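#lab-general

N.A. 3:47 PM
ok so I finally got the sequence cleaned up, no stray characters, all 410 residues accounted for. can someone with queue access submit it? mine expired

B.Y. 3:52 PM
send it over

N.A. 3:53 PM
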Amino acid sequence: MPSALPDGEPVPDDGALPASALAGAADRPLGFYLHVPYCATRCGYCDFNTYTATELRGTGGVLASRDNYAEMLVDEVRLARKVLGDDPRPVRTVFVGGGTPTLLDAGDLVRMLSAVRDEFGLAEDAEVTTEANPESVDPAYLAALREGGFNRISFGMQSARQHVLKVLDRTHTPGRPEACVAEARAAGFEHVNLDLIYGTPGESDDDWRASLDAVLGAGPDHVSAYALIVEEGTQLARRIRRGEVPMTDDDVHADRYLIADEILSGAGFAWYEVSNWATSEAGRCLHNELYWRGADWWGAGPGAHSHVGGVRWWNVKHPGAYAGALAEGRSPGAGREVLSEEDRRVERILLELRLREGAPLSLLREQGLAASRRALSDGLLDAAPYEEGRAVLTLRGRLLADAVVRDLVD
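B.Y. 4:20 PM
back already:
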């Protein structure tokens, strides 16, 4: 969730949606994203809407406090119930992200989940995930989450090498994420993810292989691996600009991706989205698939984004402003946009092409179809699914996914 918010039309004080957004809602999955914007320290590469205690000091007092944050989230979940009306859908997925959600008491996360269950109900096979910092949980905390209804957990590992973690300003010690996987399994979590970042300045191929080996040794059923993006305004961007650390180039990113796919595939992981691998269909992150497939989700919390029936909106960024709006009985929405049919077509191409199942060729216009034939000839699209009417990236196509998408959209 980037910290910058787009422009858009105002959100009504009651958060009401156009009737068109609710039409046919019963046929679409519904998920909830619950944003916890607090971090113990700020990582040098992070551009998300997060805050440390120091950054919040004097900017909202009790309104911005972690102590009553769960109640703020509960208030927005209740607002969602009013806005969505008699929506009969049980919630298919809940994802608690941040920030570091596990800086809150486990009871607070369970209380937030309980609000979703009480207001909407959860599907019988609902996926309920929280992100976690390895240093912010212990066996008792994980057991409390599992008992409270969480069944999936995602640990931020980034790297197994201390010098790489130092460049990223990550504070956990090498080996702790792997220990967390074992603790989560002992607590009853069937689905566990480890997040990795590749391309950090100073990271070598051997460092990256060591991180992947450590992941496999830990035994998660899901791995996310993302190329480091140096965002303007971050501490890491300033360090690179000053020449303190080198910038990693795209060729290195490509090499690291190939290493990841080779090692993970050899260990029984299958890619299902360009940056995500799972050991089984059940191990795939269903919540993220809601995003990639344009389903409905409500994002609660400062800066959180939502989408229902072609209407996208986003909340005010600052926890103090967010709390103030809810205290006054107003929607915390900062702006929204109603997507046109063309907007939705383009977004389907942008997102679905990144999936293993690919995107239907029927989404493409004449120029996009011509581009798809060139991509097929260049080995960027898989021939077999293409014959069946779908554009599916090859391994080489995944390396150039952004460029392929741009060509097909045009």
